[in-house]
Amino acid sequence: MTHPLDYLPSAKEVGTYDPDTLTNNFSDLHPPLTQRQAMIESQRCLYCFDAPCVEACPSDIDIPSFIRQISENNINGAAETILEANILGGSCARVCPTEILCERSCVRNHDAECQPVLIGLLQRHATDHMHFEQHPFKRAASTGRHIAVVGAGPAGLSCAHRLAMLGHQVTIFEAEQKPGGLNEYGIARYKMTDDFARKEVAFLLEIGGINIQYGQRLGDNLELATLRQKYDSVFLGLGLGTSRALGLTGEDAPGLMPAVDYIKTLRQTDDLGILPVAKRCIVIGAGNTAIDMATQMARLGATEVTLVYRRGVEAMPATHHEQEIAKTNGVRMITWAQPDEILLDSQGHVAGMRFAKTHEQAGRLAPTGETFEVAADAIFKAIGQGFDSASLRDPTAAQLARDGERIQVDEMLRTSLPDVYAGGDCIKPGQDLTVQAVQHGKLAAHAIHQALAAKQEAA
Amino acid sequence: MNTLPFTPPGKKNSGDSVVNGVDLSVNFAGIKAPNPFWLASAPPTDKAYNVVRAYEAGWGGVVWKTLGEEPPAVNVSSRYSAHYGKNREVIGFNNIELITDRSLEVNLQEITQVKKDWPDRALIVSIMVPCVEEAWAYILPLVEATGADGIELNLGCPHGMPERGMGAAVGQNPDLIEKVTYWCKKHYSKPVIVKLTPNITDIRVGAQAALRGGADAVSLINTINSITSIDLDNMVAKPTVGHQSTHGGYCGSAVKPIALNMVAEIARDPATPTLPISGIGGIATWRDAAEFIALGAGSVQVCTAAMLNGFRIVEEMKDGLSRWMAEKGYDSIDAFSRKAVPQTTDWKHLDINFKTIAHIDQDLCIECGRCYIACEDTSHQSIAKLTEEGARRYEVIEEECVGCNLCQITCPVENCITMVPQETGKPFLAWDNDPRNPFRVAS
Fold first, then answer.
1. Sites in chain B below the pLDDT cut of 70
2. Helices then strands (H, E): number in chain A?
3. Which residues of B are catalytic?
4. Do A39 and A18 sit in the same domain of this protein?
5. Are residues A60 and A120 in the same domain?
6. Residue A429 pLDDT class (50, 70, 90 cuts)
7. CATH of residue A41
8. pLDDT tens digits for B270-312?
9. What residues of A are in contact with residue B393 (Cβ under 8 Å)?
10. Same domain, A258 and A380
């Protein structure tokens, strides 16, 4: 996947390569709490009634309850409280921007309360240390129904697990060769270490009744019409399959590639040393993917990493916490500048980029007329993911009502086609958060279950 | 050798009675001490080494761990256990240790030497021998010869010794308390303090018996029968001796409220109005000590807090107590001793017309909702939960509030919920005189 950078040196060849340092650079960014720390932190929870943290959690985890269970040394109980609301509670504990969700609404943010309870780390503690002889959730009696789930990312997996729990049979169709979606391919390596995504999926599948077929891509070797015909309901958890384009000449030049593609390779490699490294590189964008890209490139050995964003710091989609991660890794941030021209060397490789300075004029972003250049061996674009329209090109899928480029759904996660549901990043209301996708999957499963039960009664 | 040839400056571990300009000295039933902080008879006062360290740290007195008949007691291994709070702080402490397991001769020698070396500090010897006069007649002259300032009768040890007819077995029988006290006064010339057991129904009975026997003072409370926890894997209590356990004696912060009440009961008992009391039970800070003194204690004894933190805690206790006394204008321990006793009364004397209601300071409120759910579920439904522009707001429904204090207790923010006394316009009215009381006393 990193072939646009094939001519660049590998991590082994840049700087003072040391395999142990490199491995360390990609170990846990935030070390887990020790047993003692978890105990102390759990005592800080005030066990609020109608707690604000629960209201802020997109997946409705009963946070005061699981924290109290931790404080009573009931780790399995705590884990079950988390997982019954969010079966991917382990990865959410690692990737949730808790600083803008549960922890932001913790009452301990108030004056004289020092800081919020470290809910994310406590959730991780519970899910890391749970130990079940058998999968903690049981399947209801078989309904005889069979549901197709497209995409084995957080939305699809969550939907499948809940459907299985409700007694349905599930087949998941996954385009890649592994399950997990962004948890497996898209999250920074130091946020999801030790093959956690794979282990979490293995745990989820222990419930039984879920079969995953890999290499099955909607719009390629899979048609929505077939799925609707063969299954009682269909859930679409397609994600956002394409990287947005800069719209500049030379966008296909060697040395320029989407950040998500590089991260995907980085996540899958067994040897970080063989990854191509741009000693000087530019990352365009300021979302979490841009931060992940810039930080990981710095940790691979790049010496000059520049992140360029067309607006100011306050508008960055990445949280303040994420921005700090990049800064502490030596990433330089340039704001109020947008790509103007891709600069190439005599061999046609990326040599840098010219940027146009921007400012806000009457509420709109506009170039000031000034430009500047940044020399670089590679450019990574992280200006957002787009809906892969190719996935909905079969005649049935093409009928799906859209909201912008994404799939339109109602509050029951129903699409415009009967018995077809959708959730996760591919639908409009999404916040593009793992935890949100998990919630969509769970709610869609209940909506599907309810609809099928109603049909049964009517029949 | 790293021993310094001089005492480093800044060490405050002296036995000076004046601290921060306040005189902390006490004369407790004739026993003088530079401050009211004494170490209770317990493991920390088992031998000269510990006692000397305690004096060096600045303790005003020590009650030497209980001496008994020869041969000395034999202790088991595994002796203590604890009742923990949420954050592993020790709330309560439990022990199954017996009286001294060292020979009488060695103890008497050490007591003599220590008293000689530390003449300004109180040194009291705890004693427990069988309930026959000869036993007391034998040991008392030996103790008197040490020069110690007084004795404390251990009539309260709740574990092990009662099985042999001593300790609490005596303390639970008022006739025996009186008899033993009488023997002690007969065979010993210095002050006799009777240590009372709380494992009874009415503490006043024991104090009255001690007074009848001629006691110069009482000390209380001894430890409370307890089992702190069970090892659920092995189905055995702690501390575990081999594969078994036994009940022990409970002490530490958790027992303070029980001890305070018992001290107050004796202090306000018309039968023992001036009987000196040495307060014991969960004292860990200067404030605890001040509370015991305010309720009638003339000195206080500490054990668990020292066992958990070392002897150095007496520094903070002396410093805190003296600063508080200076602030309040109390120039001696006597000046505030028993000051809270008159206000401690029977329920029937309370003002039935008094009214207080909760007030929530909205600026301090962190919107945790704890007060709301506590009141809603378990009390008087007197707190309203409002939502204003998405923000939570909790307000007291004043007409429903009975002033129970529960919301204030459950609130995690200090001073956020206060109880505000209300002007009712009604006169003081005790239940005794309340027209609603079918057994009222005509006023």
1. 1-14, 443
2. 16, 17
3. 157
4. no
5. yes
6. low
7. 1.10.1060.10
8. 999 999 999 999 999 999 999 999 999 999 999 999 999 999 8
9. none
10. yes
Which residues in A lie closer than 8 A to residue B373 (C-beta atoms)?
Answer: 49-50
Q: Clarify whether residues A254 and A155 are in a common domain.
A: no
A24 and A58 share one domain: no
Q: Which of A103, A129, A155 is the last residue of a domain?
A: A129
A349 and A438 assigned to the same domain: no
Work out the percent of chain B whose per-residue pLDDT is above 90.
Answer: 87
Question: Domain range spanning residue A288?
Answer: 3-28+243-384
Cis peptide before B409 (omega within 30 of 0): no
DSSP B57-124: HT-SEEEEEEE-SSSPP-PPS--EEEEE-TTS-EEEEEE---S--S-HHHHHHHHHHHHHH-TTSEEE
Question: CA nearest A436: which of A56, A181, A54, A58?
Answer: A58
Which residues 371-400 of B are in CB contact (within 8 Å) with A? 372-373, 385, 392
In this structure, which long-range contacts are made by residues B436-443, counting pairs with CB atoms below 8 Å and at least 24 apart in sequence? none
Residue A326, Cβ neighbours under 10 Å: how many?
Answer: 23
Within-domain flag for A208: yes
Contact B88 A39 (CB under 8 A): yes
CA distance B39 to B435: 51
Q: Where are the beta strands (DSSP E) in B295-442?
A: 297-302, 356-360, 383-388, 391-396, 417-421
Q: What is the DSSP letter of A32?
A: P
Q: Which candidate in B86, B91, B368, B392 is best for mutational testing of the A interface (most A CBs within 10 A)?
A: B368
Domains and CATH numbers, chain B: 18-336 (3.20.20.70), 347-433 (3.30.70.20)
Minimum distance, in Å, between the CA of residue B362 and any CA atom of chain A: 12
A140: in domain: no
A145-169 tens-digit pLDDT: 999 999 999 999 999 999 999 999 9
Per residue in A18-38, pLDDT (tens digit) is 888 888 889 988 899 999 899
**Residues A149, A173 contacting (CB under 8 angstroms):** yes
Mean predicted lDDT score pLDDT of chain A: 93
Domain count, chain A: 3
- The values of phi and psi at residue B438, to 5°, are -65, -20
Structure tokens at B259: 């001890």
**Smallest CA–CA separation between B370 and chain A, in Å?**
6
The CATH number for A200's domain is 3.50.50.60
- How close, in Å, is residue A33 to chain B by CA atoms? 16
Domain end residue (candidates: A69, A103, A129): A129
Q: List the single residue in A50, A71, A112 with the smallest CB-CB distance to B369.
A: A50
Task: Write out the two tokens for A10.
Answer: 């590998």
* B183: nearest Cα among B129, B249, B261: B129
